[in-house]
Amino acid sequence: MINPAAARLLALVGAVLFVATSRGEAGFRSPESLVRNVYAYYGDRTSSLSSGLPHDDEAARQFFDPALRAAWRTPNKAPYDFLVQSTSWKLGGVSISILRRQFDKTYVAAAFDNQGRRVIMNFILVNGPEGWLIYDVESPHDSLRAFLAQYGD
């Protein structure tokens, strides 16, 4: 016979595990993990997992705020990949730092070398019921929202 206190503990652990695993479909647990996972897709292009962040439903749901998901999924005629600021890549180490937390948004800088050229991207992230998601990304010259609107079909 199981002890009632142990049964309550097991039920609590089960509930926590359910919430933790059901949250995995969208968003991330920290701003740094979100940005780290974006750049994990930028490898040597030997597989689909290293060929840039996919423009599919799964990636849109996992990485982007609902208002940006449709724009990310829409086929576009972009002249380069906005997240690495180039048509091709060979990234050096990615440095990630939180710049500021302001109201409902957190600003995170990602800096890396792409084929010897220094790139700095500023992610604007929001934390909601789904976890941390991308609200927008800014380069020194443009934002992801404006870029997708400009080059979308």
Write a concise synopsis of the structure shown.
With about 150 residues, the chain is α+β, with helices and mostly antiparallel strands.
Strands, helices and their partners?
Elements: H1 4-22, H2 31-39, H3 57-63, H4 66-73, E1 95-102, E2 105-114, E3 117-128, E4 131-138, H5 144-151
Antiparallel strand pairs: 1-2, 2-3, 3-4
Helix pairs in contact: 3-4
Mean pLDDT: 85
Globular, elongated, flat, extended or rod-shaped: what is the shape? globular
Question: Using only CA atoms, what is the Rg?
Answer: 18 Å
The profile of the biggest β sheet is: 4 strands, antiparallel
Order of helices and strands: HHHHEEEEH
Distance between the termini: 64 Å
What does this molecule look like?
- The model is unreliable at 3-24 (pLDDT under 50).
- This protein has helices at residues 4-22, 31-39, 57-63, 66-73, 144-151, and strands at 95-102, 105-114, 117-128, 131-138.
- It is of the alpha+beta class.
- The protein starts with a helix and ends with a helix.
